[in-house]
Amino acid sequence: MAKSLQDMITRIGSEIRRPSLGTSPTALTSPIANAIFDAIAIYQKDRFRISDIDPDVPPTFTTTQGDEVYSISNNANIGTIFNFDYLNVMVGSTMEKMTRRTAEEINLLNQQNQQSGQPTDYAYEDNKIILYPIPNATVWTIFLGGHILVAAPTDLADTTNVWMNWAEQLIRCHAKYEIAIHITRNKEMAAAMSPDVPGETWKAWRRLKNETNKIKSVGRMRAMQW
Fold it and tell me: Are the CB atoms for 174 and 193 separated by under 8 Å?
């Protein structure tokens, strides 16, 4: 059954026998909600099966003549992405893979502003994408792929947030750990819910990682030489 932020707040309050920690001053600003948001912020940086772009609506941005630097004003994911798998450029009706370089390489290539045209190379620096060659008058569409920041829920009743569903156990366990450390000062619960081996948070993280590795791995079979 799909779960919401309110479901998790209520369950944590019941399991630690402190339901009042999920209601005051409001559910969204309660200690339990804050612990949930802290847990999500920690695991947003870890790559799981829920952390990739949506292939139905891949993040894109379009180039502007003479501009080689692109930031969150062009696409919000540019400033929050954790890892690039690829950048592709649409050339007519065909997608072409771009080559990743260091920022220094791109800056050296662009320093005389003498080459413009279809972007073929890119670099990432200061939460910005730098393209080479400098885009010309043609509008090029750039597609991003990689490990993006998946937002925490903002609505108590929303049942579609992946952190409340695919990663529910991980977030719930780590939220209890945060509460035990910072609110209730419960050493026993902190040890039980620890993100380190063999705590329950670590076990939930390991299960989610194993699931991710299994679903995303690309197997290769080779014939045995006899």
Answer: yes
Q: In this predicted model, what pLDDT tens digit does every residue of 155-203 receive, in sequence order?
A: 999 999 999 999 999 999 999 999 999 999 999 999 999 999 999 999 9
Separation of alpha carbons 125 and 69, rounded Å: 10
Rg of the chain in Å (alpha carbons): 22
Of 147, 136, 198, nearest in space to 173 by CA:
198
Q: Indicate if the pLDDT at residue 220 is higher than 70.
A: no
- In 3-state terms the chain splits into helix, strand, coil percentages (rounded to 5) of 35, 20, 45
Paired strand residues for 177: none
- Contact assessment for residue 10 and residue 170, using Cβ atoms and an 8 Å cutoff: no
Residue 146 bridge partners (DSSP): 84
- Please enumerate in sequence order all residues whose Cβ is within 8 A of that of 95, keeping only pairs 6 or more positions apart, or say none: 88, 89, 143
Tell me if 169 sits within 8 A of 199, measured CB to CB.
no
The upper half-sphere exposure of residue 170, i.e. CA atoms within 13 Å in the direction of its Cβ, equals: 25
Query: By the 8 A CB rule, do 8 and 168 touch?
Result: yes
Helix axes 5-15, 168-182, angle to 10 degrees: 50
Which tokens sit at 45? 């940086």
Assigned token pair, 225: 């030489």
Residue listed under structure tokens 């999500």: 40
- Edge-to-edge strand order for the sheet containing 83-91? 60-62, 141-147, 83-91, 94-97
